[in-house]
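Researcher: Structure for this, please.
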Amino acid sequence: MSDKAEALARAVAAHGGTDRGMELALEIGLSIDEYASARLLQTRVMKDLDWNNSRSPHGLMVDCIYLAAKRGGYDVSAVKVRNKTLSVFGVGTQPRPSAWQHGFRDLIEELL
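Model: Predicted structure, token format:
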């Protein structure tokens, strides 16, 4: 199994079919309202007809929480979030919203 496939398998196992984004949000320090906004963004992006699945659901969740943290003025970086995902989920996921956010700027502005 490739490294990428192994990482994806660990991410799937870490979630076990449940939404564990709240754990990451709390680890970063987001409020419930900030997490709810990030979660709504994730849901709306995934349901958008223009969404091309450039990120896995896990990766998109990390991206949305990262964007909410940045917008909220939290002291976060891609490396810090990767380390937090490693401690929370057992798999490090680097946020990469640049892979998709350009097509969803209006939605990001509306929700975050």
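Researcher: Any notable elements?
Model: Residues 14 and 89 are 5 Å apart (CA to CA). The first helix runs from residue 3 to 15.
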